[in-house]
Amino acid sequence: MPVVRTLSVIFIEFWRGVPLITVLFMSSVMLPLFMAEGTTIDKLVRALVGVILFQSAYIAEVVRGGLQALPKGQYEAAESLALGYWKTQFLVILPQALKLTIPGLVNTIIALFKDTSLVIIIGLFDLFSSVQQATVDPTWLGMSTEGYVFAALVYWISVLACRATASIWKSAFTPGVHRTEVYMTHSMTNSAEAMMISLENVNKWYGQFHVLKDINLQVKPRERIVLCGPSGSGKSTTIRCINHLEEHQQGRIVVDGIHLNDDVRNIERVRTEVGMVFQHFNLFPHLTVLQNCTLAPTWVRKMPTKEAEALAMHYLQRVRIAEHAHKFPGQLSGGQQQRVAIARSLCMKPKIMLFDEPTSALDPEMVKEVLDTMIGLAEDGMTMLCVTHEMGFARTVADRVIFMDRGEIVEQAPPQEFFAHPKSERTRAFLSQVIH
User: In what residue span(s) does the ABC transporter domain sit (predicted)?
Assistant: First the structure.
């Protein structure tokens, strides 16, 4: 919304660039000019308007900083679960951002509390002004310093109360030890309709960099595909285009009979049928394991809470992690988190699973537990596309292994043929590096 963004920038930059004392003068003198003739505005109301306008600009920047501090993976995970923009913001992004903004908001409130002494310039008396007036009164019995010490103590206690409240808020939003890791059908050919996934002449650019070059890929139902290749070859970009986490510029992608284009309805329909597991897990750290798994079924599939919880426990048991259902992601090991991520995707009952290097961020001893879970899915007949460097997994599970380099599919073959008799010199060079 460019208009809203522009107006917000103008508002924030203006009020942040004007001193509070000037804002108070403006609210005291100019505010009555906007009211009907004969209408009076209390001085306190004028002061409140000025202070609110001034501090709201600073609070907006604090909130923006909290939103920008969230890793991109949180948005992508929500998008992959088909939560949509508003559900993503209110269920995933804002709860986490609020926790991050609490220290900044508290500092802003404390500064605001101290700046209230400036209201004396428009004829209002704050605590210190009242003390100063009282100490010059002939009936004052104590030393003048006593009044100022008392006023300072009141301010200090008030600030302490703000900090204590902030600590309570932060505890409420941080119940566990968290770690943050650093989102109508068109006419198709008969061949595309018979395939679970069809990519035809797909091209993608990042600026001038041509990252995908005429990718053609057909995936049958229940087929298991492994994509391998050097870093930067376009493997991850290919599968991210399948659920529109990345947008392709040319070619066509059809997923389960749905033409993936700019139609938001088509994108959401595809995402409800395609599960995705990320390299860095991208679990929602403010939710328990069980809540991570029930979020999308409840809000996207409109599943009753009890039914969603039963489904989540079923898949958590399947990936052998049900005993941790009420823990938070930060309390789990990397392998456990990745298994939760797999269970979360399965709770949407997808027809297709995409794996983007699911073991590359794990310690060697944790890799096996994740691979065993993926092998179990393959044995159940799940249609799978997996980007991985685990060649043993490719030999065991894949129906077809695809080698990519420089944005192109160089070679594809069944695993026995691919590993025993690679046709391309580039494929042979790659395998000699990864197979020892």
Answer: 197-431
> What residue numbers bound the domain in which 79 lies?
2-173
Sign for the CA dihedral angle at 277, 281, 284, 290 comes to: positive
**What's the sign of the alpha-carbon dihedral 267, 271, 277, 282?**
positive
Give the Cα separation of 37 and 279 in Å (integer): 65
Q: Starting at the edge strand that comes first in sequence, how are the strands of the sheet with 209-219 ordered?
A: 209-219, 197-206, 250-255, 258-259
Contact 292, 340 (CB under 8 A): yes
| 295 and 417 within one domain | yes
Helix (H, G, I), strand (E, B) or coil at 42: coil
Task: Identify the three-state secondary structure at position 362.
Answer: coil
Rounded CA-CA distance 352/338 in Å is 18
Number of domains in the chain: 2
Entry pTM = 0.73
pLDDT tens, 32-74?
Answer: 777 767 677 777 777 788 888 888 888 888 888 888 888 888 9
Summarize pLDDT for 138-147 with one digit per residue, the tens.
665 556 566 5
Residues 128, 265: one domain?
Answer: no
Domain holding 393: CATH number? Answer: 3.40.50.300
Mean of the per-residue pLDDT values of the chain: 82
Buried b (16+ CB within 10 A) or exposed e, 296-310: bbbbbbebeeeebbe
